[in-house]
Specification:
mainly alpha, Arc Repressor Mutant, subunit A, three-stranded antiparallel beta sheet, 3 strands, globular
């Protein structure tokens, strides 16, 4: 799977979390399970995404949130395709 596709899937998962009445940080293990990939494999993607400012992750890469910039990126990319 291409990095861009993986980023978009992570953003979609994190965006869906905002539909909860009280959104909480999403565990990395839950994201990895939904993407059928290992947590270690996902760590590299999360580091890139955190560096881009489209998500926030804790120092241990265990919990994740989408940022305002990430929502804008997701909306822009879904409109283009």
């Amino acid at each position: 799977m291409l990095l861009k596709q993986q980023k978009m899937q992570v953003l979609a998962i994190l965006s869906d979390n905002l539909n909860n009445p009280h959104p909480q940080p999403v565990p990395t293990a839950a994201i990895a399970g939904k993407l059928n990939m290992s947590v270690m494999e996902l760590h590299n993607i999360l580091k890139i995404m955190d560096g881009l400012g489209i998500i926030q992750t804790d120092p241990d890469l265990r919990h994740n949130l989408i940022t305002k910039q990430g929502l804008q990126y997701l909306n822009l990319e879904t409109r283009v395709h």
